Amino acid sequence: MNTPTVSETAKAVTRRNTEDVQGGGNFALFDELFADDFLDHTPQPNCTPDKAGARQLYHALREAFPDFHAEIHWQRADGEVVTTYKTYHGTHRGNFLGIAPTGREIQFETVDAMRVHNGKITEHWGVANLYSLIQQLRGSVQTEVQARQDATV
Fold first, then answer.
1. 134: helix, strand or coil
2. Rounded CA gap, 114 and 132, in Å?
3. I need a labelling partner for 126 at 20 to 30 A (CA). Which of 1, 104, 112, 149 fits?
4. How far does the chain reach from its first CA to its final CA, in angstroms?
5. pTM for this structure?
6. Mean pLDDT value of segment 34-46
């Protein structure tokens, strides 16, 4: 029987987080996968760099985009650190970053690295293309405003 390597275990944990927690909304699993002393080196706006901040972000994404999910393009592991390139998808059904629901389908790319130690996610570094996301959401709002203005002329 083969024992999984540290890298294989780390990749499996990060994949479960992406698919089951972020994509499936399984927050009981979130508590199982994230270490209590988790540190996010690149927290998103209005989020703290700890486990509570990550949970808050995941909840905000699920509320704004109830069908939120990721397409993982590739993962690479170097020991405990897993780098993942993925595209997130969803439909804007709730407020997000101060933007009211538009009903628009969105997608944006992200690259992140997570350290997994003893089966728990302990650290995160990431870069998300939030500019593209905001453009998609605001573009939809601007189009609706322009349509209303055109209708009143």
1. helix
2. 23
3. 104
4. 74
5. 0.86
6. 95
Interstrand relation of 34-40 and 69-78 (parallel, antiparallel or unpaired): unpaired
CA angle 129, 134, 139 (to 5 degrees): 130
Position 101 pLDDT exceeds 60: yes
Strands 120-128 and 34-40: parallel
* Residue 18: domain span: 6-152
95: in domain: yes
69 near 88, Cβ under 8 Å?
yes
Contact 16, 41 (CB under 8 A): no
| Band of residue 153 on the pLDDT scale cut at 50, 70, 90 | low
Q: What phi and psi, each to the nearest 5 degrees, are found at residue 135?
A: -60, -45
Model confidence over 63-79: pLDDT tens digits?
999 999 999 999 999 99
DSSP-H helix ranges across 6-115: 6-16, 27-33, 51-64
Q: Is residue 1 part of a domain?
A: no
Give mean pLDDT, residues 132-152.
67
